[in-house]
Please model this.
Amino acid sequence: MESRLTDPSPKVENTLILAGYIKEKIHAGQIEVLQDSVQQLEIYFNQIKQLNIIEKLTVLVSLISYFRKIKNYDKCAGYARQAVSLSRHANNVNILQFADIYFDYSDVEYDYGQYGHARILLAQLLQKLEVNNCNDNFVYGRLYLNLGKINLAEENYEAGVGQLESALDLLKETASSNDPIVIKTVDLLVAALIKMEKYEKGIELYTQMLNELHQEREKELEVKTLLNISEIYYHIDLLKAKKVVEQALELMQHQDNNHDVKLRALMMLAEIEEHTGNLQGAVSLYKRSLDHLEDLSNPMSAILYSKIGILLSKINEFKQGKMYLKQALNHASIIEPMKSKIYFVLGKIYTAEKRFNKANEYFQYLLDEIITNNKGNKSRKFGHILQMMAYNYLAENNNEKALASFYKSLKVFGEIQTLSDLDKGLICKLNIL
Model:
């Protein structure tokens, strides 16, 4: 696509075409093809004297969007400052363009944790809107949404919720429930209410949205909203959470849902079954979840393999459990602490199978990892692993190594003042004296 712009002279027309091309590619998520185009646009922007203010702002908006996507704060903020400065001196920038520029800049500052400056920019925008007698509720809705986000980021939930409620009221005067900005506002508002443990209020908001989406025949969004409701119930009523997920799965049978939505629903249901003690049912659902991963190199597959393996070990299906755990370990995306958890479970499995040397190989790996990651500091977990290794040595009648491990465990626990004598391993020690 870049070869279409071969005119070596930096003309205004080509500059605007290039700016539009960059914005189009950003919208399509094709950031990786834009490096050369962006460099060329920067050259044009700095060299062309014929660009008027509106044209300069058009270029700057594309540059801000690109550098925000690649997380180059310095360039992004620099271009945003230029855009704000230009817009202040432009007589022919309409108020909506002016608002977009301020929203872009405040978003940049928000992304990089500069909440105070982001708030100042929004306050300046509000003043400009009022001076110009702007009565666009959608713009005011966006402004209150951004102010609410800042307050939530600063953990000022009461103020954040109030601003998000105002934003939602304003946005819904001009936008429908399926508009992405309305959905985003509701999601942020409910997340804040959950933080405040106002679960019923969150359910009420999503239920209202669900009814509106049903009237608009937005089936896929209905499913997602049902899953959101289930996630809230997960905090207060697992049976209701299960019922709502099953309702979402039933709705999915009558439509073509993407695999990600189906995967989310199945994993939620699996987790509920796991926490209500139906481990076999949870294993079955996690296995079904694997079927909805279009690419097994997806990091989620490592999580699913490990979950299935751990649950199978809990119901004494050791052979299958080991198979899934080793698949997880062999996955390219396996990371700590998942890896350590798998090694711990494999150690317990081999202990149950009376393969004590093999079990202690995994436990030794865990001890080495704890020493490395904690810079030599020991922990309660370290002590418990030593006790399990001691048990394995004892089972092999290697009392010398067993006693050494128990003493090491006792030393670790002795440095943790809050533990009981049992935790400190005294009982284990006495059993072999």
